[in-house]
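=== RUN LOG ===
request id: a7f3
mode: sequence -> structure
chains: 1
length: 268
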Amino acid sequence: MRYAAGIDQGSTYTKVVLLDQDLRLRGKALQRTGFRLAEAAESAFAEALQAAGLRRDQIGYVVSTGYGRHQVPFRDTQVTDLTAHARGASFFFPGTRTVLDVGGQTMKVSRLDETGKVLSFRLNDKCAAGTGTFLEKTARYMGYPVEEIGALADTSKEGATISGVCAVFAESEVINQLSNGCAPADIMYGAIRSLVERTMQLLKRVRGEPEYTLVGGITRFESFSRVVRETLGPQVQVPPVDLVQYNGAFGAARLGLRRLEKLSLATS
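=== RESULT ===
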């Protein structure tokens, strides 16, 4: 049995996925990245191996991706997060033609061909306003932990108007909204709508088309996915909730299996 590992080292979390040659998930792990990227990769990899009941020498190929992909010392190769997320989205939903990736520090929209290869893409260019950091800062300024973003937004009666020009100015905007009597839930929901609006701007620039697959750490907040569906319609796919943050790692592991297959054919 052949196994491959995909390691998606983001700015906030490091995710590891272990797949066998039949594309079955054998183990996974998620840990905060912190400032010691190599150590975070080693630790998350060891956790995934333990969960799978596998030894390190049983993993035939390791592919890294994400912000810290060059800092994974035991990688066999590395790929861009655009490529990894495209292959991951196609793993979950073979009909994917557009990938919307909203993470902690970046926002990306990619258009794919029928084989899952990236045809074109666009990245956010407005600092952190188009990323999950904007939501996290908004929550913290109001005294709520990041984990409560989704639940808070779900209680909103009417979303506040949030410009989302820059995460640096989020504090003053939140203070103004609170002083005007706006409920924290409405401010949070307004911030989510602002983030979705920026996603739609990138979508237009890349000429995205259905089926859409929504990935990235922000998709763990169901309220964000719901607003995207309200905007684009029902053809918006989201990976299973327990795997939603692992899309890039799945894509990297899938590419690792393909590389293993080619190496096997070359030596046979």
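=== NOTES ===
The chain has a mean pLDDT of 88.
The two ends are 16 Å apart (CA to CA).
=== END ===
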